[in-house]
TrEMBL record:
Keywords: Kinase, Membrane, Transferase, Transmembrane, Transmembrane helix, Two-component regulatory system. The keyword Cell inner membrane does not apply. It comes from the Bacteria. InterPro entries: HATPase_C_sf, HATPase_dom, His_kinase_dom, Sensor_HK_TwoCompSys, Sig_transdc_His_kin_sub3_dim/P, Sig_transdc_His_kinase_ChrS. One of its GO terms (molecular function) is kinase activity. This is Sensor histidine kinase. CDD domains: HATPase_UhpB-NarQ-NarX-like. The chain crosses the membrane at residues 100-123, 158-181. The keyword Transmembrane applies. The lineage of its organism: Bacteria, Bacillati, Actinomycetota, Actinomycetes, Kitasatosporales.
Length: 445
């Protein structure tokens, strides 16, 4: 995995460490395979050259010959065994002991065979278990000290003293080196463990990144779906508040025309229907371009509400009063448009459903909130029954699947919530209706 330059460098370092360990192991394998033959050949050559000078007897020479052959056979046999059982084992310990015995006997016959016996120092780790290593090193040190002190057995007290001192020196040195080797090995092991840990962490990190990517993709899809649903709600509200409301008004006007014989009255209502159609068309165009309602294009919210209420009064013939309380502040376009649309729908509902005698619309600026109340003294309704009836699925006719209406109150609430506000409807049959919207006072920027 590559998560950046830093990680990349760490990976390269890990690979280097692993390669380094492998190369070292390979070299030791070559030494284990060929080293004993090389050292045996070297010691045989030097021992033979110095045989006369050392006064070797013919018997000793023959014994050496037999031992050399034994050593070669031993190594050949071991090279076959080691393939199936690499690393410290009982078989390895046996091979070490036999090789030591042959080396000791050869060095006894001619001290120059110590060149062969020294191999004992280099093979303890790969042949002996940790428990036997020190014993193996000491045994090899005995052979080497014997050779260094002039040959085995030592002669005389001085010879034994020299042998003893050399054995002590060899043992100390060898144990010291073995200690450092152990430390180095421990460090190597720790390094390998760190590398393994790093790999595990890298894998876990990669998994976390993969999961994160999947989660991110899922979130994107959800966000898109939420955006689509939100836009669909907005469009539904816009269609309801422009086209649907306009068409309702036009139908009402045309019904009057259809039911009257008076041409002047018919003319008046046809004109109103035409004006409503024009107005609705304009509003629909504005909502397609996501513009504020036409009434707000020239005036602030109080003025626009006042005109709306006056027009409504004129159209319906129901007395309506508009009041403002608190200090008027210029509102953010979105907030002003929300309140105007709510007022329009509430008034439309009053005209269609309430049969009211009077209507009051109040806009109040209270601290950091603006409230809009639309009250009528009409026939009222039970909001709980309505909310049960207009749950989303019940809005569809079982036969045709087209909406049956009932969007107005939900649309008003959705508009208020969109600008972090709320909407309350208080009504009871025969007790009139009060629609109250409460939104945060966000000033015009
Ligand atoms: N001022 C009111 N007086 C009496 N009843 C009302 C009033 N406002 C709403 N209602 C009742 O609540 C119902 C739901 O109103 P809502 O505005 O949600 O739908 P609608 O007006 O019937 O249809 P739409 O607004 O979708 O054209 C109305 O059908 C009506 O029965
Ligand atoms: Mg309605």
């Amino acid at each position: 995995m590559r998560t950046g330059d830093g990680d990349g460098r760490a990976d390269v370092a890990d690979n280097d460490a692993v390669t380094e360990t492998t190369t070292l192991d390979d070299r030791w394998a070559v030494f284990d395979r060929w080293g004993p033959y090389g050292l045996l050949a070297l010691s045989t050559l030097t021992a033979w050259t110095a045989a006369d000078a050392l006064g070797m007897s013919t018997g000793a020479r023959r014994a050496c010959g037999v031992l050399i052959v034994a050593a070669v056979v031993l190594e050949l046999r071991w090279n076959r065994v080691v393939r199936t059982r690499p690393g410290p084992s009982a078989a390895g310990a046996r091979h070490y002991a036999l090789r030591w015995a042959v080396g000791f006997a050869l060095t006894w016959a001619n001290p120059l065979f110590a060149f062969y016996a020294v191999i004992g120092y280099f093979s303890t780790e790969r042949l002996l278990t940790r428990r036997l290593r020190k014993a193996g090193l000491f045994a090899t040190a005995v052979t080497l000290a014997g050779s260094q002190s002039g040959g085995l057995p030592p002669s005389g007290e001085l010879g034994w003293a020299l042998f003893g001192a050399l054995l002590a020196a060899n043992t100390v040195l060898v144990l010291l080196f073995s200690h450092f080797a152990d430390l180095e090995e421990a460090r190597g092991r720790a390094r390998l463990e760190t590398i393994a840990e790093l790999e595990r962490t890298n894998t876990a990190l990669q998994q976390a990144l993969d999961e994160n990517a999947a989660l991110h993709a899922q979130l994107l899809v959800q966000a898109r779906e939420a955006g689509v649903a939100d836009e669909r709600r907005r469009l539904a509200a816009e269609i309801h508040d422009t086209l649907a409301q306009g068409l309702t008004g036009i139908i009402a006007q045309l019904q009057v025309v259809a039911n009257t014989a008076d041409p002047a009255l018919a003319r008046e209502h046809v004109d109103r229907a035409t004006a409503l159609a024009r107005h609705s068309l304009g509003e629909a165009r504005r909502s397609v371009h996501n513009l504020a309602p036409a009434a707000l294009a020239d005036d602030g919210l109080p003025k626009a509400l006042e005109k709306t209420v006056a027009e409504w009064e004129e159209r319906t013939g129901t007395p309506a009063r508009f009041t403002t309380t608190g200090t008027v502040e210029p509102l953010h376009d979105e907030v002003a448009a929300t309140l105007l649309r709510i007022a329009q729908e509430a008034l439309s509902n009053t005209a269609r459903h309430a049969r009211a005698g009077r209507v009051g619309v109040t806009l109040s600026y209270i601290g950091d909130e603006v409230t809009l109340d639309i009250r009528d003294d009409g026939r009222g309704f039970d909001p709980r029954v309505r909310s049960a009836r207009t749950l989303p699925h019940s809005r569809l006719r079982s036969s045709g699947g087209t909406p049956t209406g009932g969007f107005g109150l939900d649309g008003m609430r959705a508009r208020a919530e969109r600008v972090a506000g709320s909407l309350d409807v208080e009504s009871e049959p025969g007790q009139g209706t009060a629609v109250s919207a409460r939104v945060p006072l966000v000033r015009h920027d």
